[in-house]
Amino acid sequence: MDTRRQTCLPDSESADVASWLSEGWIADTLELGAAMPYQAGVSATLQYFLTDADGTEYSYYWTIQDGQLGGAGLGEHTSPDVELSVSLDDARSMQTGATDATSAFMEGRLRVDGNLDLLMQLLPITGSSEYQELERELARRTDFDHIGE
Questions:
Q1: 3-state class of 113 per DSSP?
Q2: What is the rounded distance in angstroms from the CA atom of residue 54 to the CA atom of residue 27?
């Protein structure tokens, strides 16, 4: 199913955007994540659970291999190292850069289960300028008003 739409960006450039939490969004995530700097030994599988106001749950996962996004998919991974649970609204806010994930965690809006030491090893990656640029570009390519379409 084609999950891309034409949209007009603020600077009048036209771009294809993928619905959030769709196969197109996963493809964009993989493309951008593969360009992250190589960091030997920094590897983990992160499982994300997002829940909207009516209780509908969405899930996806990222597999990081040596600092780079080596895999991603919709649904549940069979053996994640870390599980992150958050409301759909807070996830959207984090994905668009309006909310910092560390702040959401400290405020109890982001719950983390699993290998916390491994998650802490990823902090230098998520704090890097390359990762911040990845998030900005992924947000630019994402239609957050449409989920999984």
A1: strand
A2: 28
Q: Which of 56, 50, 37 is nearest to 124 (CA)?
A: 37
Q: pLDDT per residue over 76-98, tens digit each? A: 999 999 999 999 999 999 999 89
User: How big is the CA angle at 105 (ends 117 and 109), to the nearest 5 degrees?
Assistant: 140
DSSP class per residue in 109-147: SEEEEE-HHHHHHHHHHHTSHHHHHHHHHHHHTEEEEEE
Distances (CA, A) of 56 to 1, 49, 66: 22, 10, 33
3-state secondary structure of 2: coil
Q: What is d(CA 118, CA 124) in angstroms, rounded to the nearest whole number? A: 12
Largest CA distance in the chain: 44
Look up residue 40 and give its DSSP letter. Answer: T
Task: Give yes or no for residue 5 having a pLDDT over 60.
Answer: no
